[in-house]
Amino acid sequence: MARTRFVTRTALAAVVAAVAAVPQISAQSAAHRHIGHVADMWRDTPDQVGLLVAAQMEAEVAAQHAGLAAGSGDLGGIQRHVTHVLHAIDPSTSERGPGNGYGLIRAASGAAQHIGLAAEADDASNAVKTHANHVGTSARNAVTWAEAIVEKAAMVASATDMESAKAMAEEIAAMTQAILSGMDADGNGRVTWQEGEGGLEQAATHLRLMKEAEGLG
Fold first, then answer.
1. What is the dihedral of CA 66, 71, 77, 78, to 10 degrees?
2. Residue 159 belongs to what domain range?
3. What distances in angstroms separate CA 207 from CA 25, 57, 111, 158, 216, one per listed residue?
4. Structural domain tally of the chain?
5. Disulfide engineering: 138 pairs with which of 93, 129, 177, 202, CB 3.0-4.6 Å?
6. Distance separating alpha carbons of residues 57 and 111, to the nearest angstrom
């Protein structure tokens, strides 16, 4: 009897070891994978950070140099710093600059795309679908403002007088702040996620709410 129990235990241990050796299939849902691409990691961003994080990093650089452009006391200084803003928004516009080389437009567009894919996944919950609209709308607002900056920057580059260049630099600085923190477009004292208002801060807030609702931390 004792020998039988020993054999049984040995067989059971062998089965457990065999099961442990089998590669485990990830239980992560399709919706959660796309949320992770936006929030935590994407394969080609600097240091493989999430797409929204990459957008925020580029936006901070753009806002810093937009402020320097607006505060510059000479035309050359304004144009130089606006070029630096452009590098953070779209590095294809300049070979060198202070941005991370990924570009705000690319990162924010990617964030909007992947959060949309999360919402479209078969296993997306109502919380994912609701907050994905909020995140995506705010990210697309950031892209719209960034594209407007690219157009305005071209005008700054060709400006020949200080007054007009400075006025446009101030507009660019205001748009970079909107990208970062949104803007109160309807003047009601609040900045929401809605079209024309939400920026990357609002996108990050609703991404956090989504992750909490999904138990993603």
1. 50
2. 34-213
3. 26, 16, 10, 39, 11
4. 1
5. 202
6. 13
Residue 142: inside a domain, yes or no?
Answer: yes
Distance from CA of residue 82 to its chain's centroid? 22
Question: Is residue 21, in this structure, part of any structural domain at all?
Answer: no
In a domain, 24, yes or no: no
| Apex 78 CA angle, 139 and 109, nearest 5 | 15
C-alpha–C-alpha distance, residues 81 and 59, integer Å: 14
Residue 133 and residue 119 in contact, taking contact as beta carbons nearer than 8 Å: yes
